[in-house]
Amino acid sequence: MQKRVRLPFFIGVAGGTASGKSLVTKKIIDRLETTAGKRKQVISIHLDSFYKELNEESLRKAEAGEYDFDHPEAFDFDYLIKTLEKLDAGHSVQIPKYDPGLYARSGLITIQPADVIIVEGILVFYDDRIRDKFGMKLFVDTDADIRLARRVRRDVGQHNRPLSLVLQQYTRNVKPAFEEFCQPTKKWADVIIPRGGENDVAIDLLVQHIQDLLRTPRGSPDLEQDLARGASLEDTIESAKVAQAGRPH
Ligand SMILES: Nc1ncnc2c1ncn2[C@@H]1O[C@H](COP(=O)(O)OP(=O)(O)O)[C@@H](O)[C@H]1O
Ligand SMILES: Nc1ccn([C@@H]2O[C@H](COP(=O)(O)O)[C@@H](O)[C@H]2O)c(=O)n1
């Protein structure tokens, strides 16, 4: 029997820079929202929101293409786990909106609790507290040359960065950090998605699986899980009885 999923259902989407994490996330959300039997609310959170704020010296380094935005030290993982815990408890949260062009936070976004919460970013499987939150872990695996080409187009075209600095940042920080910190987290993935957002077969299969998980009857007995998340013993036993009563004899 398929195990009941606990809502919110957290999905992690990791992978190298410009591998297509955002596109995969968007396609999953669009398809879940339009096809889920009972309409489910799905939201996404980007790891960028949890970049530590830069002091003046770090900002100067960033502008010179020398700050390491790909090292785990660049992220406030404590802040991310607190945010996920609040959402898990059913609260809405405000998180920073991040502007890579400015190397800074540019406001706040309000995130409402949802049935499915997708967290995407290069290092979302790096910290075990965050990794353990995910009921499903996806790694988007796209050829490094393609990622570099997209990255150059994005940084030069959208962020107005000089090509020489983009290439310097890539060779000095982005590529080595990918190999040291991001690539090894592929081993935690439940599903590896080759070629990213253009892989519609993989995305359709995943959406189908997520829908199946969400459709699994709520109230099937999983006493330990319910109690662990703070449900009262009475409520838990009651929900188990309801599920039991609905089963064929
Ligand atoms: N399959 C694809 N074909 C063409 N361009 C793509 C494809 N996937 C992503 N892109 C483009 O590459 C860039 C990075 O994609 P994105 O999904 O933002 O990657 P990530 O979130 O991993 O950084 C974006 O400009 C996006 O439009
Ligand atoms: N100010 C910044 C912040 C981050 N980056 C780069 O973004 C990459 C992570 O985002 P993806 O959407 O590409 O996964 C990471 O490789 C950072 O180097 C940046 O260039 N500037």
From TrEMBL:
The protein's Enzyme Commission number: 2.7.1.48
Domain Phosphoribulokinase/uridine kinase: start-end pairs: 10-202
Keywords of this entry: Kinase, Nucleotide-binding, Transferase
Keyword Nucleotide-binding among UniProt keywords: yes
Pathway assignment: Pyrimidine metabolism; UMP biosynthesis via salvage pathway; UMP from uridine: step 1/1; Pyrimidine metabolism; CTP biosynthesis via salvage pathway; CTP from cytidine: step 1/3
Pfam families: PRK
Substrates-to-products reaction catalysed: uridine + ATP = UMP + ADP + H(+); cytidine + ATP = CMP + ADP + H(+)
Molecular function as annotated in GO: ATP binding; uridine kinase activity
Enzyme kind, highest EC tier: transferase
Example of a GO biological process term: UMP salvage
PANTHER family linked to this entry: URIDINE KINASE
NCBIfam families: PRK05480.1
Record-stated family: Belongs to the uridine kinase family.
Protein name: uridine/cytidine kinase
Provenance organism: Diploscapter pachys
